[in-house]
Design a protein that fits this description.
The chain is of the alpha/beta class. It is about 50% helix and about 10% strand. It has helices spanning about 10-25, 40-55, 65-70, 75-80, 85-90, 130-145, 165-170, 205-215, 220-230, 240-260, 275, 295-300, 305-325; strands spanning about 105-110, 150-155, 175-185, 195-200, 265-270, 285-290. The chain has a 6-stranded mixed β-sheet with strand order 2-1-3-6-4-5, sandwiched between helices. The chain binds zinc ion.
């Protein structure tokens, strides 16, 4: 591995990204940034390298829509774009992180919500949540792998996987983090929001309604669900999950507002999400936007918009890990 050092400009950008995240999290930032430990700086350097090599360079000029593409439905267009993920996203040479010993996070489990016979939310133009979440998960997998992490998806294609099976997969693969990706659907079609959840046996009425939608195909019987609820507090990493949620939320908002200032920040909340219930590692469920808003469905058809959503998720996860390494609990 050749060692790369960020130049002065990159360092400035890096520091800005870090400080912005800290500010969004309501933390004080030291002016010099000297509180960061070496590991944090290496992680942040990797983030910067990713930003410069993987970020702007991906923005190739968009080609005019071909006549073939015009014949495809929005759903078919997004599905078709998934086949090109390998070609279009240049990998960064960032085995940097894998060189660091003692990282508390090595394996990241990404969970694309829904799949198979369960489409999740469906937009007015027919775009489905299951297709969007898979597209985002495949892109995120690629980017996190480029940072040197072991990344595993709960599904690689359009198949049904019960929520119970998804948590089992995380345990079987000894995942250190679990991030479930979803797209919300709300009764108001003029509203799109970003919000990130972590587990709690109860949530407020609105969160419980969302959890109910997301809890279909759980794989649990009612009895199992009840008995799990009683014991769940013993294993779930509530505080770490809450912090992971808050890093992801603030990074998502900061990235997405660059493209769409109308996205509403609904923050982080606890709720009874089955897919997070039996996790023994930090686990969150991110509702990255809302398919119920037709304008947002149009945005989601744009590859650049989806790439930006992925950069938000990536940035939040890396920011959480950076903090974790700098402040071991
Ligand atoms: Zn969902």
């Amino acid at each position: 591995m050749t060692s790369r050092k960020p130049n002065k400009h990159q360092k400035t950008v890096l520091q800005d990204v870090y400080e912005e995240n800290q500010r969004l999290l309501g933390r004080e930032v030291s002016v010099s940034g000297k509180t960061a430990k070496p590991t944090v700086m290496i992680l942040l350097m990797a983030l910067t390298i990713g930003f410069f090599l993987g970020g702007p360079e991906e923005k190739t000029a968009s080609s005019p829509v071909s006549s073939v593409e015009e014949l495809l439905s929005p759903e078919e267009q997004v599905r078709a774009s998934m086949n090109e993920i390998t070609e279009e996203d240049p990998l960064i040479d960032a085995s940097v992180l894998s060189q660091i010993y003692g990282l508390s996070v090595r394996t990241i489990m990404i969970d694309p919500g829904h799949g198979g016979h369960d489409p999740g939310a469906v937009g007015q133009a027919g775009l489905t949540e299951k297709t969007i979440t898979l597209d985002l998960a495949l892109r995120l997998e690629r980017r996190l792998k480029a940072h040197g992490f072991n990344v595993i998806l709960t599904r690689q294609k359009d198949i049904s996987v019960s929520l119970k099976r998804r948590t089992e997969l995380a345990q079987e693969n000894q995942a250190d983090l679990f991030v479930s990706i979803h797209v919300n659907s709300v009764p108001v079609d003029t509203l799109a929001m970003i919000e990130t959840f972590y587990f709690s046996p109860r949530g407020d009425a609105r969160v419980e309604a969302i959890a109910e939608m997301e809890n279909s195909n759980s794989g649990y019987s009612v009895g199992e669900w009840q008995s799990n609820l009683e014991t769940v507090g013993r294993t779930v990493k509530v505080e770490d999950s809450r912090r992971l949620a808050s890093h992801i939320q603030s990074a998502m908002i900061s990235k997405m507002r660059e493209l769409n200032p109308n996205l509403v920040d609904w923050g982080t909340r606890p709720g009874p999400f089955v897919v997070l219930m039996n996790s023994n590692v930090p686990a969150v469920l991110a509702e990255v936007t809302a398919l119920s808003m037709p304008e947002e469905e149009q945005h989601l058809m744009d590859i650049e918009y989806r790439k930006q959503l992925v950069r938000g998720l990536e940035s939040g996860i890396l920011s959480y890990i950076s903090e974790q390494e700098g402040n071991p609990t």
